[in-house]
Each structure stands twice: as C-alpha cells, then as structure tokens.
Amino acid sequence: MSPGIAAWLAAAAVRLLGATLRLRVAGVERLRPLWASGRPVIYVVWHGRILMLPWAHRRLRRAHGAPAVSVLASRSRDGELAVRYAARFGVEAVRGSSSRGGAAALRALVAAVRAGTAVVLVPDGPRGPRERLQPGVVVLAALTGAPVVPVAVAARPARRLASWDAFVVPLPFARCALVLGEPVVVAAGADRERAAKDIARALEDATAAADRLAAS
Fold it and tell me: Which helix (H) or strand (E) covers residue 79, if one does?
C-alpha cells in the first residue's frame, strides 16, 4: 500500500475515532501569552503519544486559537507516511531526523523557528530508546531562544501496542486528555546536559498529568 493511501485511511480512521472521544485540555492559559505575542515555540511529545496529536491540535486551533505548527519527520518510508498523515490535519512537515539528514533538518528547523513558525519534535524518535530525550531539541532551543513546551496525549481506556514506543491507541468512546506543560527556556550559554534533564522531566510530568486527567 502506498504511503498516500495508508495516510488517507489512517486519518479517516482517526477522525471516526475522534468523533467518539471526550477530549479535555489542560495548560492552555499558560500558553495564551506566547500565542498572542506571536512568539514561536518548540513542542515536544514522546513518540508513543503521537497518534491523536494532529487531531487534537486541530481541535486546539478551532477552540483556543492555537497557531499552526510544522512537525519534524524522518526521511524514511515511515516518515513519509507520517508527513502525509499530518497533512490531512493541516500540519506541515520539516524532513530529517537524528539518524538521517540531521544537520539539514536542524538548519531547516532553525530557519522555521526564526521565521516565527511553531514546530513539533518527537525527541525519542524515530527509533528510540523509548522516552529518552535526544539532544536535538536542546540545540534548537539554545540556537533560537524559543521556549520548549512539553505536550502529552492520553486516553482511558486505550490499547498499548507491543512496539518499542508502547504506542497508545485510544479505544472508542474513551476519555482523552491533551496537556500542555510548563514552557522551558534554554539560554544560549546554558549547560545543555542539565537543560536536557529539565526538558525530559517537564515532558515526563506532562505525560503523567495527561494520564491522570484521562483517568479522572
């Protein structure tokens, strides 16, 4: 099956699934000043939580006026599928990853952020290890000064696939939660190892908060 057809089918399935979900959103108020100022941000989300994010972001744009985003996707076949899938929800893409085209991707991301575009990174993708932050997000934040915003999507009940990332798939009529965490700013001269730990901790906190919200 071609990536285009697979993406169309996946997006259609997610739209049908999304129509049954009860979505709750937390953290919007802490981001409103950034959105109102036009300041770009760097969103980060673990790979296992990405399925519903384009759908949830479209809801966030319609209900709360969140700005458009571009997502980083690898140059692999899976990356092509991800690009086409995200496009079905109005999300554009920057191509490249830490393993293939990394330097070019970083340059493109820096240019996009400096031009005012919010971007989404999956810091443990495309192949893991699961929920372990790779250094690219810290470098991008230090070069651009854009705040890093941890994002998490959770659902209850949901199925976790037997994949490296424990990919989360909500079940129909599940309670779904989208959490926007506390922004983390990385100064140009910051200790990057410490900054990586701060971002990873913030993303872990947002993920735990999303799990609690979906379960409540």
Answer: helix 77-87
